[in-house]
Amino acid sequence: MPRPSRRWRAGAAAGVLTLILAACGSSDGGSGGGGGRPYTIGLSNGFVGSEWRTQMVEGLQAAFAEYQKQGAVDELVVESADTDVNGQIQQIRNLINRDVDAIIVNPNSETALDAVFREAEQQGIQVFAIDQAVTSKDVTNVVIDQAEWARISAKWLAGQVGEGGDIVVVNGIAGHPANEMRWNAAKQVFADAKVNVLSVADGNWDQATGQQVMTNLLATYPDVDGVWTQDGMAEGVFRAVQAADRLKQIKISGEARVGFMRLWNQARADGFESIGVVNPPGGAVSALHMAVNALDGKTFAGGKINGNTVTIPIPYTVDQANFEQHWGAAGGESDAYSLDGSLTPEQAAEYFQ
């Protein structure tokens, strides 16, 4: 049954309407059914330690403004702070108390938020997870395939160092859903290619931390053949390898961010090659499009959702062959800018019937 209007609920007399609200307030998180436009949308972001997250929030705000002009939405309530799982649970409860129609969440855990997701679902609030999938059936995941994202650069690096090559790894945040999915996929690629992983360390998706971690790894493994790292740290890894005067000897899997691409561009004259797989901050925009369609009462078309997960495309990969094209388009952006991509409203509508 469609969720009752937020304004209707706010103005209703308590007591007499309690049973009506209980009857109408429940909604299947994957099947839509809001109380009518305009909708209030909430965002829960539990990590602010990277420029990627800032770009994610700003992109969502820009897309939301376009929907505001159409009268489809009225308010975007943002809960964004560097916090742990308990802090993110409180963020989501704050959004529930604000009586939002849908919540877009970049989750800190794959499973630890299940109870608060159920609280939202019981209030008729639809929840959409971005960037990394969660297991809760009360949530619709709108994500790229993080495992495939990792395989692309891992296969490239394995091809560069060859069978028997020695590499080190600079990962993101241990235990984070996207980090674990990525590393499990990359680890299998290296095992299949018979590439030796000498050490795995965490750079916390931070350039300065990534640089220090790589500096430490080079002190222990000065003759390593390559390094596999994730986005948010490749620029720092590059600088550490450059400072050790090892750019010609060590292969680096890179990132599709302007700061790294600037260094890549400068080093190309000396034969440096890399790869950058786009991890789009615009996934939040894609989820917003999905949320508006679902709140309008539309349901996902057959074949467009697998369980509770909608997989959106990885926009593209930057490599030696197409570097000039993408550098020409993005080179004027700040070093913190991540190459991006999102579904258009029209493309998102094709996921529904």
Automatic annotation (TrEMBL):
Q: Which InterPro entries match?
A: Peripla_BP_I, SBP_2_dom
Q: Which PROSITE patterns match?
A: PROKAR_LIPOPROTEIN
Specify the signal sequence span: 1-25
- Coiled-coil region(s): none
The chain positions of domain Periplasmic binding protein read 41-298
Among Pfam families, the record links this protein to: Peripla_BP_4
Entry keyword set: Signal
- Asked if the keyword Repressor belongs to this entry, the reply reads no
Enumerate the GO terms in the molecular function aspect.
Answer: carbohydrate binding
Q: From the Swiss-Prot or TrEMBL record, state where the protein is found.
A: Cell envelope
Q: Which residues cross the membrane?
A: none
Top-rank taxon: Bacteria
UniProt key word Zinc: no
Q: Which GO terms describe its cellular component?
A: cell envelope
The entry assigns this protein to a family as follows: Belongs to the bacterial solute-binding protein 2 family.
Q: What is this protein called?
A: Ribose transport system substrate-binding protein
Species this chain originates from: Nonomuraea maritima
What high-level taxonomic lineage is stated for the organism?
A: Bacteria, Bacillati, Actinomycetota, Actinomycetes, Streptosporangiales
